[in-house]
Design goal:
The chain has 14 helices and twelve strands. The protein is an alpha/beta fold. β9, α13 and β10 form a beta-alpha-beta unit.
Length: 347
C-alpha cells in the first residue's frame, strides 16, 4: 500500500499565487474581471501544483458540463462499418477536444433507444447535442425539443414544423448531383440510371432531385432505390441490368452504393467506363480510391461538416453563457457547404 498525496485545493493555489480564493475561482472557471498579471500567476500556480478543478463544483459556477452529446440515428453495426460516420465523428471530436469538451456518443436502433436518448438529454448531463443521419419519421427532433437543449443537426431537416428555429449543416446535395449527371451526359451517355439512397433521408431526396433536374424525362425503370450500402448498390444494379440492359451510365447516391454497383457490373462483364460510366457521392478516400477502377465522385467535406456542427453549437453555448442564459443571439439557420466533382477513372 502506498499513501496517495492529497489533491491540491483551490486554497492551496490561492496561497501559491498570492491571491484570493475568489480570484482563483474566476480564473479557473473562465470568468472575467481579473487582470492579466494575476491570471498568469494563477495559471503558473495551477501548473506547479497540478491542480485539477472539481467538475461538479465548476458546473455550479459556470452552469456548463463541458460535455456534448453526439446522437447518430443509426444502429452501431451501421455506424462502425460506414467510413462516412468515422469522418464526421473525427471532425466533431477534433473541434470539441480543441475546446476542452467531452464527446458523449449515443446511437439509436429502435424505439427503446429513442426513449433512452430522450431521457438522457433531458437529464441535464450535457450542454447540447449534435444530431445526424436522421430519418423522416424519426421521433428524435421532438424528444430533443422537449429536452430543451441547444442542438445542431447534420443534414437538412425533413420534418414539416416550420416554426422551429433549426440550426443545421449540410452539403449541396442537389447541386452536386446535378454536376455529376451533367458530366455523364457530357460524355455522351444517354441511358443514365440513378441508384438512390434511403429516401426517408433528405440527402437522398436532394440527390434524386438533382438527378431529375438533368434527366427529367428518364425512364422510371432507370431509378432504383438503394439504402447507402454496398449491398443496396448490388441489388439495385442487378435490377437495372434486368430491366434496362442498355444502361450506359450510373449515378450512385454514395460511394458505398457505387462500390456495390461496380462489383455487379464486373460480374456481368460490363467494362467501366467503356460500357457503363459510374459516379458516386462523398469522395470517401478509403472507398473511392480503392474501387476498380478508382471512382469518379462528388466530394463533400465530411470532416469539415462535423467540425462546423460542433463549432456552431459551442459558439451558441458561449453566447448563451455571456448573456446570462437568455437568448443566444443570432445563429445561422442553415449552412450548406459546396461540393466538387472529383474525376477518376470510372467516368
Amino acid at each position: 500500500m502506498t499513501d496517495t498525496a492529497p489533491r491540491p485545493t483551490l486554497e492551496a493555489v490561492a496561497a501559491r499565487a498570492g491571491v484570493s480564493r475568489a480570484t482563483v475561482s474566476r480564473v479557473v472557471n473562465g470568468g472575467d474581471g481579473v487582470r492579466e498579471p494575476l491570471v498568469e500567476r494563477v495559471r503558473r500556480a495551477v501548473e506547479e501544483l497540478g491542480y485539477v478543478p472539481n467538475q461538479a463544483a465548476r458546473s455550479l459556477v459556470t452552469r456548463r458540463h463541458d460535455a456534448i452529446a453526439v446522437v447518430v440515428a443509426e444502429p452501431e453495426t451501421r455506424v462502425f462499418a460506414d467510413p462516412f460516420f468515422a469522418l464526421q465523428l473525427r471532425g466533431i471530436s477534433k473541434e470539441l477536444t480543441a475546446h476542452d469538451n467531452q464527446l458523449v456518443l449515443l446511437l439509436t436502433e429502435g424505439r427503446d433507444d429513442h426513449a433512452r436518448v430522450g431521457r438522457y438529454l433531458a437529464g441535464g448531463h450535457v450542454d447540447g447535442a449534435l444530431v445526424f443521419s436522421l430519418h423522416l419519421e424519426d421521433p428524435l427532433p421532438g424528444l430533443i425539443q422537449r429536452a430543451g437543449i441547444p442542438t445542431v443537426f447534420g443534414g437538412r431537416p425533413g420534418w414539416s414544423d416550420g416554426s422551429q428555429d433549426v440550426v443545421y449543416v449540410d452539403s449541396d446535395n442537389r447541386g452536386g448531383a446535378r454536376e455529376a449527371v451533367r458530366h455523364l451526359v457530357g460524355l455522351g451517355r444517354t441511358r443514365v440510371a440513378h441508384i438512390t439512397g434511403a429516401l426517408d433521408q433528405t440527402s437522398a431526396v436532394d440527390r434524386l432531385d438533382g438527378f431529375r433536374d438533368v434527366m427529367g424525362d428518364a425512364d422510371p425503370k432507370l431509378v432504383v432505390q438503394g439504402d447507402f450500402t454496398p449491398a443496396g448498390g448490388e441489388r439495385a444494379m442487378r435490377e437495372i441490368l434486368d430491366h434496362c440492359p442498355d444502361v450506359d451510365a450510373v449515378f450512385a447516391a454514395n460511394d458505398l452504393t457505387a462500390s456495390g454497383a461496380l462489383r455487379v457490373l464486373r460480374e456481368h462483364g460490363r467494362r467501366v467506363p467503356e460500357d457503363v460510366a459510374v459516379i458516386g457521392f462523398d469522395d470517401m478516400l478509403p472507398v473511392a480510391e480503392q474501387t476498380d477502377p478508382p471512382l469518379t465522385t462528388v466530394r463533400q467535406d465530411i470532416e469539415e461538416m462535423g467540425r462546423l456542427m460542433a463549432r456552431l453549437l459551442l459558439r451558441g453555448l458561449d453566447r448563451s453563457s455571456s448573456s446570462g442564459g437568455g437568448d443566444a443571439g443570432a445563429a445561422p439557420a442553415g449552412v450548406v457547404l459546396p461540393t466538387t466533382l472529383v474525376r477518376r477513372a470510372s467516368a
